[in-house]
Amino acid sequence: MSAESRVLHPALRRKIMSADEAAALIQHGDNVGMSGFTGAGYPKAVPPALARHIESSNQNGGTFRIGVWTGASTAPELDGALAKVGGIELRLPYQSDPTCRTRINAGQMDYIDIHLSHVAQFVWFGFLGKLNVAVVEVAGVTEDGKLIPSSSVGNNKTWLDQADKVILEVNSWQPAAFEGMHDIYYGTERPPHRKPIPMVHPGDRIGEPYLHVDPDKVVAVVETALPDRNTTFAPPDDNSRRIAEHILEFLGHEVKKGRLPAELLPLQSGVGNIANAVLSGLNQGPFDNLTGYTEVLQDGMLEMLKSGKLAMASATALSLSPAGMKEFLGNLDFYRQRIVLRPQEISNHPEVIRRLGIIAMNGMIEADIYGNVNSTHIMGTRIMNGIGGSGDFARNAYLSIFMTPSTAKDGAISCIVPMASHVDHTEHDVQILVTERGLADLRGLAPRQRSREVIGRCAHPDYQAALLDYVARAEQAARAGHGGLHTPHILDEALSWHSRFERQGRMSG
């Protein structure tokens, strides 16, 4: 133990060992619950050591592979390292690593894409099999054995509760001032013993600042001092700014109509440059005393907290750029009073989302003319990242907004198509679609009305005429007895745009 060790519990202090020694305790076939959510709070020493161990074991024809369960995406030191050596048999629930993605789409790794709010309860229910090992990063261990969470919470509470064996990474790079910033709720139960979650405001604290673990289950403690993998966001481009302008105008209209209060409702924002552009627009906009109830806290929300536009934010993880992390660490006393980090089973809980009346803003890959949204698959078959928490929020939000530029691949792909090649969010859960071209408010519209709204307001001009022609011919065919007029389609053509792209590299004919 180093002189500055943060492992203060005597029994756990005696279990300090190297990452290689800890990794050797993980066996072939184990399901391993790893901490981490969008590049924050993931274990940074044991996974690379485990990858080396797997590579060595498999050099002579071995088949050492494990199941990897996380909160969401992690970092190259975890997903990338293990995928590179072929060490992952099954991955869930969300990933964004290019090596993982390649192996999944090549059929070399199984992947289960599920709603983030479902993961913890599926483990508790036994739906996913036994959790053999938990590898969880924490910022410290108190004298009485309580764990100080780090920059993400994710599913760590469930991993620690359900795993047979626990490996702790105690990371002194994570600020000691994290202590007290988290709210870990231990009141969830399995049916039929569930009770309402006692939260009526995003800032409510309903739990305690620490994670619990049975010291007897802890088989190893590894001390680290390694930074999170921060993502650099590109500055907003013209398309992102236009999307943000459309959303701000829409929110102002909703306030004037009396459908939103002047301070809006709690904001949820997905990850990415468009989301940050929207938050930047809100920071310059007319709305004050805003709140956030989201999965990840990005630079945009940090800037809003700093300016005072955002009064507080609740999340399960930080997802900051290097500049954002520097700002956060440099003013931690300020931010710790305004940020609460919770388990993702609470940050993404449908009951809470519905009660608080969230304004949900998420990205998408494509939408079809009737409002069905694909947020996970390229050309219907190749996974990109996963559904994440967008479904948790879209289905239960007060306002469900999906956004994307109208085209991709320099115009070769239209993001508004006759039929979505994969559906993550049905027309029943999608209220608002936004591209740089405009905003389509689909509330209260029947399918054929939706088609005109989506095409007219969101589709790129290069594709509008073809979309209108498709709808007109589909309706004509339905009137002639070939199909129904409720949701008209020409089945032989509905996915022809995607097929054309696969053959020719462009959706346009």
Structure characterization notes:
The protein starts with 9 loop residues before the first helix and ends in a 5-residue tail after the last helix. It is α/β, with parallel strands linked by helices. The protein is globular, with a radius of gyration of 24 Å. Strands 1, 2, 3, 4, 5, 6, 7 and 8 form an eight-stranded mixed β-sheet that branches. Helices cover 33% and strands 18% of the residues. The model has no long low-confidence stretch (mean pLDDT 96). It contains 18 helices and 25 strands.
Draw up the topology in text.
Layout: H1 10-13, H2 19-23, E1 31-34, H3 46-58, E2 66-69, H4 76-84, E3 88-92, H5 98-105, E4 110-111, H6 116-125, E5 133-141, E6 147-149, H7 156-162, E7 165-171, E8 218-224, H8 238-256, E9 267-269, H9 273-284, E10 290-293, E11 296-297, H10 299-307, E12 310-315, E13 317-318, H11 322-330, H12 332-336, E14 339-341, H13 344-347, H14 350-356, E15 359-363, E16 366-368, E17 373-374, E18 377-378, E19 382-383, H15 390-396, E20 399-403, E21 407-408, E22 413-414, E23 416-417, E24 432-435, E25 438-441, H16 447-458, H17 461-479, H18 496-504
Parallel strand pairs: 1-2, 1-5, 2-3, 3-4, 5-7, 7-8, 9-15, 10-12, 11-13, 12-14, 15-20, 16-23, 20-24
Antiparallel strand pairs: 5-6, 16-17, 18-19, 21-22, 24-25
Helix pairs in contact: 3-4, 4-5, 8-9, 9-10, 14-15, 16-17
